[in-house]
Structure formats: structure tokens, C-alpha cells
Design goal:
2 copies of one chain form a homodimer. Chain A is of the alpha/beta class. Chain A is built from 16 helices and 17 strands. Chains A and B meet through α1, α2, β2, α6 and β9 of A and α1, α2, β2, α6 and β9 of B.
Chain lengths: 413, 413
């Protein structure tokens, strides 16, 4: 079975917002064994919507539509679907009372006719309740093709999708299992890797697809396969990965999984009852902000100092002016002093410090743009690593953040 | 004239990455007056690519294709385009020496045959040099439709697009001007706004399109129009906006423009020669990390403290334990004390402090999840504002960050 996603919204076509809804839906569909064959974004335009539905119908068994279900004039999806499926709108009392309830509880302005009209829904469609909003989800069926329309506001859509659509799809379709495993490598370009694994790649069975995903100094290799028997597919892929380790073992960092590196680090710190603090110069708080995005971070993260100005390195991290002048603020010595300073200030078990030149100007130190030092300190040991992350500001920062998480993970495992 | 974008890549269809390339291209095309009618994502599959090219050809004058130009086996775009346009590959000597140069300068591994093969390019296509990589851009033309193929690695694609494709498109097409103006409102839902502006909306000429964009407590209203005379279009839209102010003046925050709020704040601080420091509790460094993303931030940003643990509020920001115990760490009083503490520690002209409950657990204070206090301090004045940002952790953090930037902007204007 094959599905596709149609996102409706001028804001995507003019580059005003990123289509994150389709990323979420594609990922969730893959998890339950439904392949996504195409993602299409079109404008809020009835003719265009109908044209796209007609094309999608020929290609797919399931069409997910997002957007255009709001209460205002520019929202055309509901009326267009009614026209397409020769349906009429009727009032859904349950949805009406849900909408009234939302206004009573959460909205400071009184309910109006436009809000109430959100309970007028196609008579033939199966309706899915929108817990967080007033635009219901709906499902039509024609010639064995399912069309499911969902609101475009991401957090409303996600809630309906997880709690209503997934169980519905599981009950309606017999599905295969899709398995993706992604191997993280570091230090070689994709063509160099391709050369090393050529005979391994050529020996892959047709049922396993290999993809190369190069990004910011790393190449990820994804193996994908699908079938009825999940255990068999996993074994088949794992066997190939085992062989891959014998060829690329020196550059493989690990297998990517659903758990983010932030979550893994949280779990490791929690289990060991250790605490962490940060001193972030060039990364300016980005490591900390990714740490606190994960709930439970307060169990191990004591906080951080962002000494963006050298005087702050002196006053808050107790680094001597002499040391900074001698070695410059972007140096091994200052990175180490920052880590030790943070660990002592926060009284934490571990600390991590980053200092570097993110450019575009060179600054007062003599280091080239892209040079970054990352130091880690504990009461037992303090060490520092030196990197060169290229010459593009936001990429340098991003790579320094990623590398810091890698170092923290290694430290704890 | 109308264009469309075809993104090639299984990684988008399985939800492994977000299609940010199409956002960038759509925005850039809009700027030079080329409308994007559709964005399509398909898999790395020759049949699918050809099917999509055939459909796109019927709808558009210009088709932008990204992805599938790498040196490895899973990259099929170049060969598929050759087949589609009955072309053959020939070696491009200039591109070959560029590739050899890249390997000499930036890559630690020696160049191999796969890398050299990147200089084999379709004989009939116009070739665009990829400054940062080995996959060239190329343009084919058939029946007055232009097909431009670009690499999928975002920073390589962006460089070619800005420096090669934009000038090329400007020279090849006579284009209209597209104007979008987006008005930011705060405090009313979209249906309440729609009700208030109903007669204004109904009086809009057909040539102006209105869109409602609700998101995280704000509704943005976008007015779009296009035509030959840029000045005329701007005047037409500005006239409508002026009228809108008389109806919605109380909830309009301003007009959205290309300059990010971070950049505006940087410019304002720079012009006034003032400095800033931060104390971020629940936002955990996210405000700082957005500040330092903009180059030049060091001219005003002295740094920040992330006192994620209450003891750190005491030791680093000089807030008394008594005060925290009396008012709790999520309180007006502690927000104010944090702001004053940061300003003094960093010796900055201004400081901003955030403390709040991001959930999912309530913590030791008595405040509900979503409660956030933001305080600003200068030597003249210190004030605090109280907010309730809902009950979803990352949304609470995101809204607190956005609000902090709004407050900083207001402070300086």
C-alpha cells in the first residue's frame, strides 16, 4: 500500500513557513508500515485542490491532506472536499458543544458564528475530534482510496494524528513493516566511503535499499527494507550492518535511533546521579537550550555561563587576564580554565566548556575562523579537544554543539 | 509565469529530514517575482522523476529540481535527466579542475574515480558551478520550459542559487513584482479578527489576497498582490493596511519584514552603544543562542547566566535564599532580582531575566505550568511582566523566547 500527503497553504509556497507537518506525518506513517510515495504542496485554491486529489487518487491508496480548515474566508478545504465528494454540510452537535467548551474555558473573546460554523461538517465523512482546536479531522472514501483531511496548525494536527488517525489506519489497513536503520559515520566523505564499501554495497539484496546522507562533516548510511515479518527484516539488515562494521568500524559512531542524543545523555546522567554545568562562549547557550528542551533536564543540569565577553570569563569563571592575554580566549588553556571554572562555580560533577572563532571576523585572537576548543572537566580529570569546523558562522556553531553532545555521550558510556 | 519545485529524496518521504531547500527557493523566487505553484517531493526513482517532470511541464514555465546529484549509486537525477532530454554525458574540464582543487585544499582523503565522475555532465545543459561542492547545477530547456537541477546539500544549493541561478533567471524571464506584507497581531483569535474586519475584508479588490496565519498566540494577516508596477502595488497594499490600523490598531504589533527581530535588536543596541546581559532560567539559553546566531552580537551582548538550579540563583545572581523561599523561584520578585543580579554581574546597561514553569511537572513552586515572568532592568528602571503560555513544554519555552525579543525591541524603540 502506498500513501501520499497533500499540504494546502500559500504560506508554504511563498517560503513563509516550513512544511513540518509532512515530516511528522511521513515519520508516523512509516512507523506503522505505510510508505509515503509523494508529498505535494499546493495553494489554497479549489481548482488546484481538486486537480491534486484526482492525480493522488491514481497513485495512492491513502491521501493525507493538511491545511485550509480554519474559520476564515481563505480556508477552502472543507467546501472543496464537499464538492469533490458530492456531499453537504450538516451540524455535528458533539463538535459544536466541544467548540463552545473551548471558548468557555480558554478564549477571552465570546464565541461567534464563524466559530460555530466549524461544527458544520460533511455528512458522509467520518469525523475525528480535534482536542486542542475547532477544526475537526475528516475521512472520505472513494473507489477504495481513503482521503483524510486534517487542520494545518501543527500541534492540533499532531494530536489528532497520534490519537485518532493512527488507530484508525491500523484498523483499516493490513500493512507491511518498514525498517530503516541509519549508521552514523564520521571523518570520511561519501565518495571515499562508497569506494571502501563497493563490494559490500554490490552484494546487497534487491530488497535492501542503501542511501548516503552527507551532512556537516558526517555521512549517514541508511539501510531500508520492508516486508511482512518484522523479525526477519531486522535480522536481514542487522547481518548487513555487522559486515559493514568490519569494513568501516574505524569511522562508525553508532546506529541512529529515535532517541535523541539529549535524551540519552539525560538518562545516563540520571542513572549515575551526576550533575553537569556549562561554559559556552561561541555556542552562546545553544547546548544549554537543547538540554533544557528535554523535560527532566533539571535532574542533572545545574546551569551554565555564557561568557561572551572576555571580561566575563575573568569575573565569572575566575580565569586570569594574564592567561587570556598569553594564550588568547580561543585556546586550549582557556577552554580548560573555563571548564574548571564552571565546574567549581556550579559545584557540579562534570562541566563542559566551548570556546572558538565562529567568524565572520577573526576577533582579537590569532586563531583562524572555525577553530573551536571543547574541554570537559571532572574532579578526576580535565581534557580538551581541538577542532576546525569550516568557515560558515551558523554551521560552525551547529557543529560545535553537535560535537559537544557527542563528547558528553562518549564520556558517560 | 509560474514555477514549481521538485525535491528528490527518500529521506524527506520517510520524515528523516525537513525539506528546507524548498522554503529557501520559494522565498527567493518570490523576491524576484516568480510565483511558485507547487512543491513536490518524490523518491530517488527514475520512473517517478520522469513522471513528475512530465506533469510539471504541463503546469509551469520553470521547474527547479533539488537532490540526487551526489557521487554515489543512490543518486539518479543526472542520469535520469540525460535520458529524459536525450542527452549524453561529457567531461567538463573546468569542473574537473575545480573538483581536484577542492580535494587538494579541503579533503584529507585522495580524490577517487567517483569524485572525478562528478565532472561528467550533460552536453546540452547550461552548467552552473558549485563553489562549495562537486555536484554542478544544470539547466535544460524544452518547449519553452526551463528545468534547473541543483544539489540537495542545503549550503551548496543556496550558494549556487543566489550567485548563479538568480542572475540567470533575471536575465531569461520578464517577471512581475510580487509583494507580500504581513501584519502581526496579538491577543485575538482568527475568527474574532475575521468578524471585526469583515467589511474591510469584503471591500478588498480581487487583486489583493488576504491570508490568516494563526500561530502560538499570535495571528498574522498577510496581504499579497502582484503586477508590473512595484510602486503601484505597494501603494495599493499600504492604503488597505492604513485602513486596517483604524480597525485593529489596538492589537497590531507591527509589520513583519525580512529583517529578523534579533538583527533589529542588534542594530538598535549598536546605535545606542548600550550592552545587554541575560539570566535565563526556563528558557535555558535559547534567547542567548538566538542572539549569537547573528554575527556582530559581541558588540552588545556581554553574556548570560543560566541558573537552572535554585542554588545557582543564589550563588551567581546574589538572590537570597529567603527571597526564593518566600516568593518561590517562579515569581515577580525573583524575576526582578535575577535581572538586577545579571546586570550587576555583567556590568551591562540592560539585562533581561526569564523565570517560569515549563512543565511537565509543577516543581517546587506554587505556580501553574505555563506561568512565566520576564523582567528587564537598567540603571534607571526595572520592570516585570507576567504571562501564561499554555501547557506544552517546548511551546512555553518558544513563546517565552519570542516574548522576550518583543520586549527588548519595544524597550529600544
Amino acid at each position: 500500500m502506498i500513501s501520499e500527503i497533500i499540504s494546502i497553504g500559500d504560506e508554504i509556497l511563498i517560503g513563509q513557513i516550513t512544511n513540518t507537518n509532512s515530516v511528522f506525518i511521513a515519520k508516523e506513517l512509516n512507523k506503522i508500515g505505510i510508505e509515503v510515495g509523494q508529498i505535494t504542496t499546493i495553494s489554497d485554491n479549489s481548482k488546484k485542490i481538486i486537480e491534486s486529489l484526482n492525480l493522488a487518487k491514481k497513485r495512492s491508496n491513502l491521501v493525507l491532506i493538511t491545511g485550509g480548515l480554519g474559520p476564515t474566508k481563505d480556508d477552502l478545504t472543507k467546501h472543496t472536499l464537499c464538492k469533490y465528494f458530492n456531499d453537504i454540510l450538516i451540524q455535528n452537535k458533539e463538535v459544536l458543544s466541544h467548540i463552545e467548551d473551548i471558548f468557555l474555558k480558554y478564549v477571552s473573546t465570546p464565541i461567534n458564528e464563524k466559530n460555530r460554523a466549524q461544527s458544520l461538517l460533511p455528512s458522509k465523512a467520518k469525523i475525528f475530534k480535534n482536542k486542542y482546536g475547532t477544526a475537526s479531522g475528516m475521512c472520505f472514501k472513494r473507489d477504495d482510496v481513503y482521503f483524510i483531511s486534517l487542520p494545518g496548525v501543527p500541534f492540533e494536527m499532531k494530536e489528532i494524528f497520534k490519537n485518532e488517525i493512527i488507530p484508525f489506519l491500523k484498523s483499516e489497513f493490513s500493512r507491511e513493516t518498514i525498517v530503516h536503520k541509519t549508521i552514523l559515520t564520521y571523518g570520511l566523505g561519501e565518495s571515499a566511503i562508497a569506494e571502501r564499501i563497493e563490494s559490500w554495497e554490490n552484494s546487497l539484496p534487491k530488497s535492501i535499499k542503501l542511501a548516503y546522507l552527507p551532512n556537516l562533516g558526517r555521512v549517514r548510511l541508511r539501510l531500508s527494507s520492508k516486508g511482512q515479518n518484522e523479525k526477519e527484516i531486522n535480522e536481514k539488515i542487522n547481518y548487513r550492518i555487522k559486515n559493514l562494521y568490519t569494513i568501516l568500524g574505524d569511522i562508525i559512531v553508532g546506529i541512529e535511533d529515535e532517541t535523541s542524543i539529549e535524551k540519552k545523555i539525560l538518562d545516563l546522567f540520571k542513572n549515575s546521579s551526576k550533575s553537569l554545568s556549562l561554559a559556552e562562549s561561541c555556542t552562546g547557550g545553544k547546548i544549554a537550550s537543547r538540554i533544557v528542551n528535554v523535560s527532566g533536564a533539571s535532574s542533572y543540569f545545574k546551569g551554565g555561563i555564557i561568557p561572551y565577553n572576555n571580561k566575563i570569563k575573568e569575573s565569572l569563571l575566575n580565569i586570569s587576564k594574564k592567561e587570556i592575554n598569553k594564550f588568547s580566549d580561543v585556546s586550549k588553556e582557556v577552554a580548560i580554565a573555563m571548564a574548571i571554572g564552571a565546574r567549581k562555580k556550579f559545584n557540579s560533577d562534570f562541566s563542559l566548556a566551548v570556546t572558538g572563532n565562529a567568524g565572520p571576523k577573526k576577533g582579537n585572537n590569532n586563531q583562524p575562523i572555525g577553530k573551536v576548543f571543547i574541554a570537559v572537566s571532572s574532579s578526576d580529570n580535565t581534557f580538551v579537544e581541538e577542532f576546525n569546523f569550516g568557515n560558515h558562522r551558523t554551521r560552525i556553531i551547529e557543529r560545535a554543539v553537535n560535537k559537544s553532545f557527542e563528547i558528553l555521550l562518549k564520556l558517560l558510556t
